[in-house]
Each structure stands twice: as structure tokens, then as C-alpha cells.
Amino acid sequence: MRYCKNINRLLRSGVLLLALTTWIVVAAGNHAHIRNAELVLRDDVWTLDADMDIQFGRALEEALNKGVALTFLYEFQLVKPLKYWFDDEVVTERRAVTLNYHALTKQYLINYPQQQKVFDSLGEAKRELGIIHDWRLVPHATLEKNQSYQAALKMHLDTSKLPKALQLDALGESDWELVTPTFSWWVKETQR
Predict the structure, then answer these.
(1) ∠ at Cα 160 (158, 161), nearest 5°?
(2) Which of 3, 37, 115, 171 is deepest in the core (most CB within 10 A)?
(3) Cα angle for residues 101, 106, 111 (degrees, 5° grid)
(4) Eight-state DSSP code of residue 105
(5) Residues 131 and 53 sit within 8 Å (Cβ to Cβ)
(6) Long-range pairs for 57-64 at CB < 8 Å and ≥24 separation?
């Protein structure tokens, strides 16, 4: 009887240890998902606003802090579904954003296509990477009134922009994989 109690105690502590180890491994890995996204009409142009949660694993943080630039690719697509044919692609846009660490100033730099922002901590920089505001995509007149469109957004780490030596290490390694699931939603043009 005493032997069974010891085995039960060991099994429970083993299950607890396994669950804790799994949580630590998941918490230490890369993670990204899109919380929400929407098209907003501003100054006769459809613009994209989105909010994402981005977490880096140890390998990405170490590489970044050792001077490796990380390039993230944001991809947006808007299609008009057609009943008897392939969907009609209205717009496909890509935007590359690069995150660097500047060792002398101990600051993180985010380089957008036409501007640069500076942050004192990696947490602040990751929050900025997770926000898209006023990404100008298509003129208002492009979308037909009372027509529904399918929008999709995705973000991933562009490993092809890593130094050649790291590109080989990154092949098939989950430590270097950072990608959001595709976030899709419907847009209906009703404003004219």
C-alpha cells in the first residue's frame, strides 16, 4: 500500500514537471498572432490598421543583441470573390520592416520604408512591430459599392535577409520561425 502511494506521488510530480517544462519551452519560443485588423477609409484612401502580439525566443533575441538585423515582412491582400471563376485580386501589398540593435547607444532601431524609430527596450520595439496604423493601400474608388471583399493579413520573419551563415542554420529550425497565422476578414464597401 505504501509502495502505491509513493508511485502515485511520483507520477503526480512527474506530470506536474512535464507540464511545467512544456510551459517553459512554449514560453521561451517564438510566438506571433494578429489580434485584429481593419480597413479604414481616410482621405479617400483605404488604409490598414492592425494589432499583433509578437514574442521572440532566445535564439532571435541573442542574434538581435549580437548585431543581426531582423527583417519582418507584412503581407496584405484584398480579393473580390467571384462565384464561377477564380477570385479577382484587387490589391496585394508587401511591406518590409527591419529591427536592429545599436550596441553603442544600447537602443533598438526599427526601419520602415520611409522612416526610422528608436526604442530604449526590446519590449517597446516589439510592441511597435505589432502595430500597423494608416498603411495606405487602395483609393476609395477602387472598391465597388455594395460589394463584399475578402481581406487577409500575415506577418513573418524573412529569413532570406539573414546573413548567409545564419540562413543555413535557420533552415527548418523552429528557433528561427516566426510567422502569424493568416488573419482574414470581410470588407463591404457601403460608403459613397
Answers:
(1) 75
(2) 37
(3) 35
(4) T
(5) no
(6) 57/28, 57/29, 57/30, 57/175, 58/28, 58/175, 59/173, 59/175, 59/176, 60/30, 60/157, 60/175, 60/176, 60/178, 61/122, 63/166, 64/99, 64/100, 64/101, 64/108, 64/122
C-alpha cell at 97: 520592416
What mean pLDDT comes out for the span 104-123?
Answer: 95
* Bridge partners (DSSP) listed for residue 96: 73
3-state secondary structure of 10: helix
At residue 177, φ and ψ (nearest 5 deg) are -95, 120
For residue 35, what is its C-alpha cell? 489580434
DSSP string, 136-179: EEEEGGGSPTT-EEEEEEEEEE-GGGS-HHHHHHHTT-GGG--B
Separation between Cα atoms, residue 36 and residue 51, nearest integer Å? 6
Kindly tell me the sign of the dihedral angle through the C-alpha atoms of 26, 133, 50, 113: negative
E strands, the chain, where? Answer: 31-42, 45-55, 70-80, 88-102, 107-111, 116-119, 131-139, 148-157, 183-188
- Say how far apart CA 76 and CA 95 lie, in whole Å: 9
**Interval 177-191 mean pLDDT:** 88
Stronger pLDDT, 60 or 3, i.e. the higher one: 60
pTM of the full structure: 0.79
